[in-house]
Amino acid sequence: MEWDTRLIHEGQDTDPLTGAVNVPVYLSTTFRQSSPGVSKGFVYSRTGNPTRAALERILAKLESGAGALAFGSGLAAISALFMSYPAGSRIVAGDDLYHGSTRLLDVARTHGVKVDFVDTTRLATIRRSFTEGASVNLLYLETPTNPLLKITDLRGAIAIAHRGRARVAVDNTFASPVLQRPLELGADVVVHSTTKYIGGHSDVLGGALVARSRSVLERLRWFQNTSGGVPSPFDSYLMIRGIRTLGVRVRQHAENAARIARFLNGHPRIARTLYPGLPRHPGHATARRQMDLYGGMVSAEVVGGRNAAMRVARRLQLFTLGESLGGVESLVNHPATMTHRDLPAAERKQKGISDGLLRFSVGIEDAEDLIDDLRQALS
Fold first, then answer.
1. 100/5 Cα distance (integer angstroms)
2. Considering the chain, what is the average pLDDT of its residues?
3. Residue ranges per structural domain of the chain
C-alpha cells in the first residue's frame, strides 16, 4: 500500500463490537480478570490501555519496527530511553540537539553515565569517539537537527556504531516516518515527540519510542511502565486522528518550506538560510539519499543580530511567535531567547546558534501568503 492509504488503514481495523471506523476511547483505568493473573491483555491503564495499544501498533507499522511505546510527551520517551542505560554506560550524542534532550543527558551524567557530544555530521568524528576512551553503549542522533538543521549520514553512522557494538537511537521528530525511516536504515530505536508532526494540530502532547527488535522493545517497556509517563486514552485517540492526515500535511509542510527557503536564501536582510533542500546546504546530498522530502523546518540568520531578529519576529503576522513546531499553523522561534536560552551565550556561539537566528516551523497555509508576511517583516 502507498503511504496515504497506510496512514488511514494500517493498524486501524473497524471496531468488531460496534463497527466504528475510529478507534474507540477506552477510559477505564482497570480491567476485570477472569482469575488472578488471567486477563484479556489489559490489567491497569498505566501498563496498557486498548486505545494506547492501537496507537502503538500503528506507530510500529509506520516505522517498520517490532513494536512501539507511547508516552505522555517526547521528553518522557527520551527519559525512558536514557534511563535504560545504567551508571558506567557511555552515550555519544550529536552536538546540535533539542535542548530538552541535552538537559536529560546532563541529568544522566549525575547518575554516572558518561556523555560525549560530537559533530555527528562528520563520520570521522563519530569513528574517533568509538576508538578513544571507554566503549560506547548508545549513539544518539538527530537528523535534521534542532535548530541548525544539520544532516547526519544515518547508514554510515549506524555502521560505525554497530561495529563498536553500540545501539543507535534516532530522533525522527523533524522528518516523521513519511519522510525518513531510520529503522529501515539499521537504527535500533526511533524517538518521536508526537506532539509535533504526528499529532499535527497543536492540541495534544505525546512521545514515542519504536524499536527494531523485540528484546530492545521489552527492555524499554519496563521503563515505560515503571516511570509511568504514559498518554491518556483520549490523547492516544487524538494522535491516531493526527496520523490519518500525516501524509498530506507533511508534504504540504515540505513544499511550503522549500519555497520559503528559496525566498530567504540570498535575501539582503538574511545572512544565511539553513534548509537541507537547498543545494548549497552541506548536508543536501546526504538528505537527498535518506529522506523523501526535506521537511517543514527552516532556520535563517537575520542581518543585524538579536535586535533585528526580534524585530522581524514581532512584525510577522501569520507566523505565530511560539516554541513548538509541526502544527498546521506557521510558527517562528528565536532560539537564543526561547528554546535554547538555558545554554550559556558562549556555548550557543560555539554551536553556531547566533543571536540573529530564527527558526521557522512552516505550516500548511498558502505559501504566497507566508512569503508576503516574511517580505513585509523583513522590509
1. 34
2. 95
3. 3-244, 247-378
78, 207 Cβ separation under 8 angstroms = yes
- Which tops the pLDDT comparison, 348 or 375? 375
Single-letter amino acid code for the residue at 56: E
Q: Is 4 among the residues known to form the active site? A: no
Query: Which residue do the cell numbers 562528520 mark?
Result: 122
- The CATH class for the domain spanning 247-378 reads alpha beta
One of 95, 96, 153, 171 is an active-site residue; which one? 171
For the cut 80, the answer to whether the pLDDT of residue 12 exceeds it is no
User: For 28, how many CA atoms within 13 A lie in the half-sphere containing its CB?
Assistant: 11
pLDDT(164) > 90: yes
Give the model confidence (pLDDT) of 259-268 as tens digits: 999 999 989 9
Residue 174 CA to residue 194 CA, distance in Å, equals 10
User: In this structure, which amino acid lies at residue 191?
Assistant: V
The pLDDT value recorded for residue 266 is 87
Pick the catalytic residue from 167, 196, 221, 359: 196
375 classed as catalytic: no
Higher pLDDT, 22 or 162: 162
Nearest residue to 205 (alpha-carbon basis) of 83, 53, 327, 47: 327
Start-end of H helices in the chain:
3-9, 50-62, 74-83, 99-110, 123-131, 154-163, 176-179, 214-227, 233-244, 246-264, 284-290, 305-315, 345-351, 367-378
Residue of 359, 362, 336 lying closest to 349 (CA atoms): 336
The CATH classification number of 3-244 equals: 3.40.640.10
User: Could you report the per-residue pLDDT of 192-207, keeping only the tens digit for each?
Assistant: 999 999 999 999 999 9
Cα–Cα distance between 377 and 379 in angstroms, integer? Answer: 6
Is 196 annotated in the active site?
A: yes
Annotated catalytic residue 85: no
